[in-house]
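sorry for the late reply, my laptop died twice this morning and i had to redo everyting from scratch. anyway the thing you sent over, i finally got around to it. pasting the sequence first so we're on the same page, its 1077 residues, then the predicted structure underneath. double check i copied it right bc i was rushing
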Amino acid sequence: MATTSEVVTSRIAYSASDLIYVIEPNSSKSSSKSQSTLELTQYQTQSKTNIFNKIPELETLHSISDPFSKLHVQLSKGSLISVIIPSNCSKNVLINSIPHLYKISNSNKNNHGGAIVIHVVLDKSDLNQLGDYTDVMALRQTGFALLHSNGLQESSDMALVAHSIALKTGISVIHFFDNESKKVAVLEQVVPRATNWTPLYLDVVSAFQNRNYWSVKLPLITCGQYGALEKGPIDAEVFALLNSNVPRRNFILGKGPLKSKSENIGGVNGQDDLENSALERPYIKMLNEIFSERLYIANSASKTNAGHLEAPYSTRTAADPEKRKKDIGLYAMNYGNVFVASVAMYSSYTQVLHALIEAERFKGPSIVLAYLPYHSEKDTTITVLKETKLAVDNGYWPLYRWNPELEKEGKEPFILDSERIKQELQSFLDRENHLTQLIRSRPNYSPLLTNSLESEVKSRQKSLAQSAYEKLLGGLTGPPLLILFGSDNGNAEGLARRLQKGAIARGVNARCLAMDDFPIEDITLEKNLVFICSTAGQGEFPQNAREFWKHVSTTTDISFTESRYAVFGLGDSHYWPREEDAIYYNKPGKDLDARLELLGGQSLIPLGLGDDQDADGYETAYQLHGVLKRNLRETIRGINRSLLDTLAACGDVNRNVMCNPNPLISEVHAEVQDFAKKISAHLSPRTSAYHEIWLDDKMVAGQAVQDFEPLYGPTYLPRKFKIAIAIPPNNDVDVFAHDLGYIAISDDNGKLLGYNVTVGGGMGMTHNNKKTYPNLGQLLGFSRPEQAIEIGEKVMLVQRDFGDRMNRKHARLKYTIDDRDLDWFRDEVESRLGYKMDPPKEYKFENNADRYGWTKGVDDKWHFCMYIENGRVIDSPGEAIKSGLREIAKVHKGDFRLTPNQHLILGNVSEQDKPQIEELLKKYKLDNLQFTGLRLNSMSCVALPTCGLAMAESERYLPTLVSKLEIIIEECGLRGDAITIRMTGCPNGCARPYVAEIACVGKALGTYNLYLGGGFYGQRLNKLYKESLKEEDILGELKPMLSRYAKERNDGERFGDFVIRMGYVKATKYGKDFHDL
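ok and here's the structure:
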């Protein structure tokens, strides 16, 4: 017997049923029996069993004897029933079965294990029938699930799906399919006919061609159109056309072509058809058919204001051709209350029709984006068809519909009508789906009972931590607990110390040591072990754990059979972006856990992996630094109202451009600030969606629109990028401490000649990791003012293309240059420029501090730079800085400008307003500049408690340390001498400490590394003098140095130069020498 869809479905029904009914016509002749009956009878004769290892019962029912009346009893017994309706009686049975199907569906909801699947074979080869699905569609309201299939493979798959649904859910299923289709006629009402093939015909042909699993050859497909039809059935005429030996193409069904009101709608509502392109007419005709007299085409060719035909693009787009036009569909989808569809007439006619009908029914604004690619009016429809197919197939123009009303009904609002979508749309859907899952995972409590997000998360994390800790302690039966850590930057050590304190507080005798500090021969004597290990380098153990791991990983003499252990690893899953490098994530912790298990250890708890990227991972922190999450929307709106932005505030882009803040000091200062604004705008990411999203009343969470980035591209930079512009003789921006620097060069008349360009600066490093180091920028060449932006762009692009994307700790520009050399970098930049850079010109820096007090600038305007310690604007006993600035702001008509050294300038004060400002400054003691030179040249980062990376205090502690150093300064007679001192809470270098003459870099709470020998105006790096010093140690080391400096310094010698000359530290000019002590 030939394998057909009916035979395959019968076999599956036999395998998944207890009882099978085959409905046959009322005839006893064996020749009239269906394929299903013959196949199933043969199976029973061979005693084949089903998936339950039983032989199903087979019974034949006759179509005229009300066959469905017998199903109720068997179904109530919990039987798994299959009903097969062959093609020779399907039409007569289905309509009569409707009353029984209602009863079966209702009773099936309360049955115990029973299920029923009905397979209906529709035979369209008999052209005496119309061959549609009218009878099956009449069953839709019965409560049965309907499944349809075409072809042998799909019928087999859907039969399996039908039985799976019935078995697992108890829902009754009707599976209907065509045994074979030989001829298909596509009739369409298209007037007038402009192409050989109608859009619907192309859709049908494409659908058949995409099915690669037909059991027989593809059906013959013909196309035609409706003509003027007379009253009466049209079946006979259709069947005659299909039965003809020679199939007719483009036939007309009826008498002559149909006249339609849409024949003359080229210009809409009776206007001249020639006014619109022939390629646009299908869209216009469809719009007219759906919307009729409500249709208004604002930019029709017949409209008097159709100026877009002459100038279709704005001057803004013409000036920046690389910046693509925004995808209005993605913007609209962000608002949540707009129907959006993307269609293409020459790809899917039916999809356009569906989209327009849904748009017309949607209660709210609708946007339908239609794709019509052509270069000129002479392009043929075949050309447009090819271009459209290419755009849809490769995802450039996805076909989709977005209906927010479906979301309210609990359905998926996004319907994809093509196979591929572009990345931006996929990202939007990923974010939407992620947010949906987050929302669903939260209990729906009353707002009156719900606390803030911060308190809720804090409570949840505290509960989880307590539970995990109690589980750990539950495994300890009395013997001491030994906690061993491996840590380079202090995170693992800090966690181990906290675990020790918590254990001691709960009565456990706990010790805490670095792995290398514990005698390896005594390790097997310990009964309870906890290992906390961070990840270094390429998945390596930290420095203070490597000897321990080397011994444990190679020896076979150690047995942990009497020990119980727990391992917690600390790592960063995003540190290695390549998929093949994923093995390095938390590799030490994984290796240690596996080795201890191999050596016989008993695990206290499963291996724990702390991921620095995981929002729900180890010790998630929500930083509240003046911005409450519940006020975030209003905060962002306030930022926008103030004409500020958060663009590029973080991320692997150009973060900022820093220059002297006061443009009114001189004409050169004004030119430099104008240049700073231009290069900042030029290197900013080309996205502006956040403005529209935040400024309107309604918004969905997250920004979905990703504009094309002509500079950064889809991968952006390997790491952050920073720019500084200095104006000699003042280096207040520390120009050498940034990735890219510009040193303004002017002539004797104060005219700007150009800039010396520096590259490769950067302050960040990691404690105990000598592969990381701070660096000073090197002179690349000279740039004329008109070349400066282009040179900056090319420098950044070289970093984009050659920077290290494998190791983020080695990804800054300084490492890119050091891995090669400066000459290579210059050649690469010049090759992109197309010309050679001029050699650098002479310049001279004298200091890197702010110019305090009153200064007169251009236009006879005054500027006052006030000292604000570490940039903290607060009211404290004896100092009312915040109140004073508030009062000044009420009367000040000029500017408030922040300096690179964290101080404040009252700028642009007129001669007549100066006395009033001076009075207010005196009243609030803001004019007090009688500080020591050490304090006036001090600076710190914010550190604890608001910086999550801080290891020690900085901003809150530096004033205290300076006050104690001032006692020594006064004793030595150095009160007026300017000495730069800077402090940071971690080695990342935010306060630019590595160019200071004295620097304290936090290593642990109350502990700092002391660096000496930086250049007074930022021209030289300092060097590590001593590690891990407490306050008394710092004072003890600096006191004799300052005393000797007061007595033995040369005329005009700076403190940083003195400590080098006296041999306290070596001079460090290049970052590679930073760790060379």
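The domain at 653-684+717-833 is CATH 3.30.413.10 (Sulfite Reductase Hemoprotein; domain 1).
thats about all i looked at so far, will dig more tmrw
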